[in-house]
Structure formats: structure tokens, C-alpha cells
Amino acid sequence: MIRPDLSLPIPLDITAAHFIGIGGSGMSGLAGMFLDRGIRVSGSDRSDSDAMRALASRGADVHVGHDVANLPEDVDAVVFTGAIWPENPEYLRAKERGVAVIHRSQALHWLVGGRRLVSVAGAHGKTTSTGMIVTALRAIGADPTFVNGGVISSIGVSSGTGSDDLFVIEADESDGSFLLYDTAVALITNVDPDHLDHWGSREAFYEGFVRFADAASQAVVISSDDPGAREVAASLSHPNVVSFGTSADADVRVTDIVTEGPVSFTVHHGGQAASGALAVPGAHNAINAAGAVAVLLTLGYDLGSALRAVEEFGGTVRRFELHGIRAGVSVYDDYAHHPTEVDAALSAARTVVGEGRIIALHQPHTYSRTQAMYREFAEVLESRADHTVVLDVYGAREDPVPGVTGELVSGAFADQDRVHFVTDWQQAAEYTASVAQPGDYVITLGCGDVYRIIPQVLDALGQGQD
Questions:
Q1: Active-site annotation, residues
Q2: Following CA atoms 447, 451, 457, 462 in sequence, which dihedral angle do they give, to the nearest 10 degrees?
Q3: 171 burial class (0-12, 13-18, 19+ CB within 10 angstroms)?
Q4: Which of 177, 276, 355, 414 would be 105's cystine partner, CB 3.0–4.6 Å?
């Protein structure tokens, strides 16, 4: 992977920008916002996508595959993510030509341009929480600019240019880039140590969150329930810290959570209380909603209006997203790629599956995370799912590590009758269909390309009807 040098200067004026990895949800959103500014956009990605076709329809020059020929002669800036390889030909050619090569976070910083920024950070829940805040602000009559890590279902996009001075972003802690932004309101959903390949130690990871929070000019909104967040909060020197969660000492407290079907709950603040319900399931989403409400309170909205606006949130793409029902089996997809996220996703599914069973189709993400956490993945999958199908590791930016495969996860199950490791996707789809029964939920889990197996699963389920 390429580690970003966030100290490098960002061009003051950009008239033409090239995006390496333009098809990703975050990068395509950024590219779209550059188009909104009247900036010429080009880019490439390794495979075609709806996002790339949408950008092309707006005038962007997009290419499938990476090649030096894709790089325009008059480009002012080349935007990249840490997911690309250092040998990427477009990246190397831009360097050779002396073109400004900036990380996606620097491009986002350039776009913010001094507006009042709400930055959402945390190991889990960032995309959902950002979506809730954006949805609520729009429902309440505001018109924020936003960049999210996933498509907000009710809006149909992951980013948008608004007319207000508010700018809402999902801020990435994985490479430390969340420290680049001039944040007004910082929301920290949780602090669960991850990405230690960048940070080096748990202590450094926590210190990064302390620096991020203390730099916020207006307020810090932080979980009262998450142990890591509580540890960070205890180290803050910020004068305006607002906690949220189920803890008795939370400033914005959630009670009376009912998880059967769409989750319902009550939010308390300053002696007032308001009850609400969401279209998305799971106790964790009630807590995410409380965090979004807390942000709206710091922006000057009242409790009742804030909660009613958050209720408008209808989910985000790749977060417990239903893709189809075949032979009575519902097939969902979820981005969960950390044990805590897998636990939340499967727990939410359990509240709505009724008498049906849950079959997890898990794709481990990165060799380093699999090697470090395979036991935790196995424990969560075995305790939350009725049966698990494990695929091989999606390496992303990493080179393979000898001995690190999906079989590490499956081999750590105590009951081997409840897990099946298979590397061939067609065989995995057929096996999943053979296990599934009417009323069951099949859920693909992972932030790689596991969602691409869903058509094969649906076809295999359909063949069972013939």
C-alpha cells in the first residue's frame, strides 16, 4: 500500500483532476463533487461499475484498467487512495511528470474549503452515522454538502453538494488522515483498535483519536458505552464534550430499546425525552441514532425535531441490504469486516429473522486482520450464525501471507459441523443454497467483493425450485 504524506502541499487551484480508483464509493463521490465545481475529471479503476458509468454520463473521462495512457497531459492533480499498489503506472507517471499527487483525504480537505465541518470517526458505524446526520439535516430543512463512505439509500448517492455552510464527512482513521481536517464537530462512534499496521500500537491508535477530538473547534460527541471511547474521553482537554449511549451518565441517553422488527427506543437529554423508531434493525442502530441526535443538538436543533429527522434514515448500501428473495430465502449483504461489526450485523439480523436461521457467507478481509483476529471472527460467527460458509481472504492492498487463508477462521470453530470452508465461489453458492431453507436469511459479510457472489447464490437457490 501507499502511505499518504499528508504534509505535501495541495494545489491552490485545480482545473483538471485524475482519480486512480475512481469507481470506489468514496472516490466516485469525490470525483462527482469535483464535477460539481466545474473541474474536468478523469480516472480509472480495475473494473467497471455503476459509479463509473454515472460519472461518465456527467462528462468524466473514465477507463477500465490502469495504464499511463489514461493520464491526461494537462492534469493539475492526481488523487489516489491507500488501496492502490505503489507500482500503479498512472501513479508512477504522475510522479515522473511532477504532477501534484494527493491522497483522497487531501482532495476532500481542499473541497471543504473552510466550511463548518462535521467529521464522523470510529472503527465501526461511521457510514451509518454519517448517513443519519445527512438525512436528518436534509429532513430538517438544511442543505449540507456531504461525502460518505457508502450510498445513502434514500438519497441514492454517497456525496452531494449543498448550499449551506455545513459539510458532513466520514473521516477515516485507518491511515491517520482524519487528523488533516479542520473539524468543527467531531463524532466518535467507538474506538476499537484496528489498522495497527499503520498506527503501530494500541496506544498510538488511541492518541490519534485524542488529537482528532481535541482539535475540534466546537464540540466532541463521543460514545459513553464503548470502552475505547471512554478511555479517549478521559484523556480529552476539550471544553465541550457530549457523550451518548445507554450508560446512565450519558448526556444523550438511550433507553427502552426494543429490537423486534424495526428498532424503537427513547432518547433523553436535559430533562426532556423523545421516543422514536428506525426503518433499520438492531440495537446498535438505536445507539448510532443517539449519536446523530447529539450532533444535531450541538448544531442548535431541539431534541424532538432532531429525533424525528433521524427517523427518516432508511439505511445505506451494503449495510444489511436486501438483494433478493428466492425459494423463501432472503439474501442480504453487509459490509461488516471486523468482529465487532459482524457481531452487530448478525445480532440485528437475529431480531428480524423470526423462526428462520441465519447463514453467514464470510469473506475475510486482508491477511493482516485475518491473522490477528481469526479466533475472534470464528467466535462471533459461531455464536451469532446458525451456519457459516467461509471464503478465502480478500487481500486488498496486501500481499499474501503464507498459511493465512479463510481456513484459519473455519478451523477455529468449536463445532466443525456448523462451518464450511470453500475457495471456489460457484461451489460456495451451491453449498449455501443446499443448506438454506425457506424463512432463512443468507448474509454475505465483508468489505471486499463478496457481494459479487450474490447473483450466484440467488441462481443456486432458484435452481432448487425447479
A1: 126-127, 170
A2: 150
A3: buried
A4: 177
